[in-house]
Specification:
single chain, alpha+beta, two-stranded antiparallel sheet, binds zinc ion
Length: about 140
């Protein structure tokens, strides 16, 4: 299995602006910076980490604005909000491709694993109609 660091989006400012506009969000400077952080710089951040960052880097942004922006990005399918079994926190993930996660147990860092690299064969009773899988692998990174 080949695990890579998270595929980060490299979006230009105008691409982020366009995404926000198509989601019906006014692209203010603060929202643009927030989106740059969440979509391009952060690596599977929790809501708390996004708040921390916003508190340090964005002048006088309210927590409500941060939450609303994150929620709107999730609704617009620009960002995913994940709950994974290793933590009770919501994690934001801009990688919208089908993928699983590998948790480096030492650092707590999550790596994206392309779903094509994972071969699962399921023998579930026929009555279960599987619509998706959330898989988290755990271990060390060599
Ligand atoms: Zn991911």
């Amino acid at each position: 299995m080949d695990s890579k660091p998270m595929k980060k989006a490299h979006l230009s400012r105008s691409e982020i602006e366009a995404k926000l506009q198509s989601a019906g969000i006014q692209p203010t400077l603060q929202r643009l910076s927030l989106c740059r952080f969440v979509l391009c710089e952060a690596d599977h951040p929790t809501a708390e980490e996004v708040m921390d960052w916003a508190g340090k880097n964005l002048d006088k942004i309210s927590l409500a604005t941060v939450y609303n922006t994150l929620n709107t990005l999730v609704e617009a399918k620009i960002l995913r909000a994940l709950r994974l079994p290793h933590s009770d926190k919501v994690i934001y993930d801009p990688n919208m491709d089908d993928h699983f996660h590998f948790l480096d147990e030492k650092s707590g860092k999550l790596y994206d694993v392309d779903s094509n690299e994972v071969n699962c064969s399921l023998k579930l009773p026929k009555k279960f109609k599987v619509k998706g899988m959330d898989i988290i692998f755990k271990g060390d990174i060599k």
